[in-house]
Amino acid sequence: MKYICLVYSDETDLHGLPDSPKDPECAAYAQSLLDKGQLLAGDALAPVATATTVRVRGGEVQITDGPFAETKEQLAGFYMIDARDLNEALRIAQGIPPARVGSIEVRPVRQLQLD
């Protein structure tokens, strides 16, 4: 089953705390999941200051700089994984290095029914 592991962290904490992961550690963990056939996709995101939000209300397009909502933690990256069940997905999420300074939201992926 596919799960998405969304990495959330305060951007200053993600790289600024003593326990903050470095890119090589994250890459090594991703490679270990890839080697096991469990990593389907994943990447880090550019800083939230580079975000642009698109909304459509009443047929009118609204484009604004920045994230949709002001929050303490920002979406920093994601891992799309293949796991037997939620318990295995949670075990994988525990190993994602930024979990030490942020949080990992784990959700099942809902397949879209395309024609």
UniProtKB/TrEMBL annotation:
Highest taxon, organism lineage: Bacteria
Upper classification of the organism: Bacteria, Pseudomonadati, Pseudomonadota, Gammaproteobacteria, Cellvibrionales
Stretches assigned to the YCII-related domain: 1-111
InterPro entries, alphabetized: Dimeric_a/b-barrel, YCII
Coiled coil location: none
Organism: Gilvimarinus japonicus
Entry's family note: Belongs to the YciI family.
The protein's name in its UniProt record: YciI family protein
